[in-house]
Amino acid sequence: MTGIPARPLHSTAGVRAGKRGIRVGALLLFIALAGPAGASDLRTVLGAAEAVQHIQLPGVQRVRVRVYGLQQRVEIQVVQGRKGIGTVVAEQVGGASLCRLAQALGATVELRCQSPRLQAVVRRTKAGLGVDILELRGLPWSSLLDGVPPVGYHPRDLGYRGLCPGKEEATRGECAFREGKYELAERAFRDAIGTPTSGLARMRLGDLAWLRGDISEAAMHWSAVRAVGMVRRLTDMRLSELRGDVVEEGPRFERLYDVKALTDPVRAEVELRAARVRAFHGRPIAAVRGLLDSLNDVPVPRACRLAPSTCKSIALAALRAAHEEDEIQDVLLFYLALPDRFEAPLAVELADAAADRALAIGATGFAANLLAAVSSQVRPEDLSDHLLRTAALYRQAGDDVRADVVIRYARERLPPRLLSAPAWRSAIAPTPKKRVARPRRTPAKGPKIDVDAAKTATAIADALLVQARARRLQSKQTKAMHDVNLTPRDGDDGAKAP
Length: 498
Prior knowledge:
47% of the residues lie in helices and 14% in strands. By secondary structure, the protein is α+β, with helices and mostly antiparallel strands. Among the domains are: 122 residues, no CATH class; 96 residues, Alpha Horseshoe (Serine Threonine Protein Phosphatase 5, Tetratricopeptide repeat). Strands 5-6-8-7 form a 4-stranded antiparallel sheet, covered by helices on one side. The longest helix is centred in the C-terminal third of the chain and has 34 residues.
């Protein structure tokens, strides 16, 4: 990949404040300042926010800010300067309505927020360095963890003629954009301004500005698009998500995010964008159900092949929001359809949330398998509690073999002082069993039991996924037949014959 913009897409990259201005890399916001920042310098950004929370950091020269939107979490880490900022931050956010202090560990503080639509700006004032946390009206501008990656298409997918590398300026630019050759693409798109394909050029110039973090320039280019067809729709999605003016389900939402008659590459982006709108506006279960609709003809939702981390973030939000049995079943089905569910990022958080939902519907052994599958990724400070819970669930499910495997793993990984705690002593003690008189039999020699937790969890998950897909397909077919039977024929007022 060549010519990558200076500010890469990354949800957790650092934010650095320097002498000549503020650079917000990961938060997809770049405001060039000639000197200390004041309120007027941030007018454009603050105009896009419903609420702003100011946090002053005296004695701090550099910070790194990580925003996890759908988890409603912000981390502030001091890179240079005063390290113990927990007390200072706690005093400022104690009565705040947007974000509150969750924990402070050394040079890092974690905030829990009331909204997922979060953005952060690092500013330098006369009083020192500070962080502004914004609650946006629209969607966060992007991130690798819960954003939309840059997607290029074959010109035919957008309704243009010809093959790559393209004959017209804009189609040549699209082919270069598709290959990640952003500098070459930008030159071609600028040459296309004023030509019949300037709509595509304007949309992509906006995308390139967005990749650099220049949201004002991106919005300017997108607003200048006068094309029709797919380019018009894709541009309208970008502007709508930035402004937050299409958030409710309804005719306008359905028209904008309709995927009928779209080619697979474009359909994946549209499905992903629709899911993000739903998830960031408090409807993660609706987002999951929308993505599940494509499972009838593909093994993994198209949008999740395009942005696996975004789907995992949506899945985590939906798992935490699901309470009714049908919601839990749909969200677990979506979780099981994610091929990288046991891989970072969010593997442990997802397994914990999925285990909670599995327990809610009585699947104790399955919950234990999910937890065991991610044990190697659990942070050292959390490992004891994680393994203790896993072993207890195996005991509860009547699977002493796997419970003992977890205990052996704990003995290898945990210090003796933790294993001597009452909870661990209780877990390690063998489960008392009632003796039942049975005739003596010569034990048959059988194969060694495979207790690999990850393999077991994957095998069970695959089986449940097939079963759940079948149930979902059968439910759709039944509903379709029911709708057909209830649809009045020509000349029929809908009343049943006696």
